[in-house]
Amino acid sequence: MSAAIPALELPAVDVDALVKTYGKSVRALRGVSFRVDRGTVFALLGPNGAGKTTTIKILATLSRPDAGRATVAGIDVLDDPKGVRRVIGCVGQKDAVDLEATGRENLVLQGQLYGMAGADLRHRVDELLDRFRLTEAGARIARTYSGGMRRKLSVAMGLVHRPRVLFLDEPTTGLDPEARTGMWAEIQRLSADDGMSVLLTTHYLDEADHLADRVVIIDEGVVVTQGTPDQLKSELRGDAIQVELVSGASSEQALRALGALNGRLRDMTCIGRAIHARVDDGAGAVPGVLAALERGGVAVAAVTVSRPSLDDVYLSHTGRAFHAVNEGDSR
Fold first, then answer.
1. Integer Cα distance of 317 and 315 in angstroms
2. Which residues pair with 295 in a beta bridge?
3. Is there a smaller number of Cβ atoms within 10 Å at the N or the C end of the chain?
4. Which residues lie closer than 8 Å to 315 by C-beta, 6 or more apart?
5. How distant is the alpha carbon of residue 27 from its chain centre?
């Protein structure tokens, strides 16, 4: 018989071939697999309807998969859901703050729900109010808080019981740039200083690029790629070039004109009035691109060149830009 794996060597989250179907036809997950290493920030990316929310619900024991297996901190979500709930913190996209209670009262109640009391709870509440710069606002009714303050209080509530794994759903949605930057710093601190494992979902690919040690991109219930942000971007050779056509210009005509460049542009796709492609030397390719479009009688509004981004990674694997498909039902 093989020896048991020590708890500290187990992944924070281990997802193996999860399948989930709603009704008779909506296949939210179709064999999703990934793992989250301990003490890291992991980003689960995909448009609305990709399967992110369903995955988080299964990991948080709020839903059962039709097939597959998942563990959190080494605990099987089906065999021991209560055990999972004791070691996780969950911060949803919509704040769970009681607006008629003070910030301190919200944190105290959250701690009491996990069996905390006395000096330990008071110390933890003071610690979190200080950490999120809410000490002076702690005695105020939460209804008087700004959106950024409420979001910080929500994250603090998810941390009261010192979870080993924290699920963050769209942690910076609706925040102004200053509050967003502050939240980024706090998420990084959770991993670097506290050794906590953080699994976040986000619609902001720059957020995932900045925060995540590793990302997985899912689309229509399937993992399309995963790896570190740098690994995924390095797989895309060269630069990204985007040509924005003037209103009324024919994208088909533009694609034909660019096709005459003898393969210098690759992975060409058209989204609305924008032509996306990859090229070895973006800056050097611009004059030839403009000349080809002019010969083809296609008017151009703008041309931009950039280094590969996670949006380019998503485009290369799905044929669609991430921002262009970020509408629809959540599941």
1. 6
2. none
3. N
4. 267, 269, 276, 321, 322
5. 21
Furthest CA-CA distance within the chain: 78
- C-alpha triplet 265, 271, 259: angle, nearest 5°: 25
Domain boundaries, the chain: 7-232, 237-307
Q: What is the pLDDT of residues 49-102, one digit of tens each?
A: 889 989 999 999 999 999 999 999 999 999 999 999 999 999 988 888 999 999
For residue 126, give every residue at least 6 positions away whose Cβ sits within 8 Å of its Cβ, in sequence order, or none: 135
| CA proximity to 286, closest of 268, 305, 259, 269 | 305
What is the rounded CA–CA span in Å between residue 23 and residue 87? 31
Cα dihedral 233, 203, 144, 130 in deg (nearest 10): -30
CATH of domain 7-232: 3.40.50.300
Q: What is the pLDDT of residues 210-229, one digit of tens each?
A: 999 999 999 889 999 999 99
Topology given in CATH for the domain delimited by 237-307: Alpha-Beta Plaits (3.30.70)
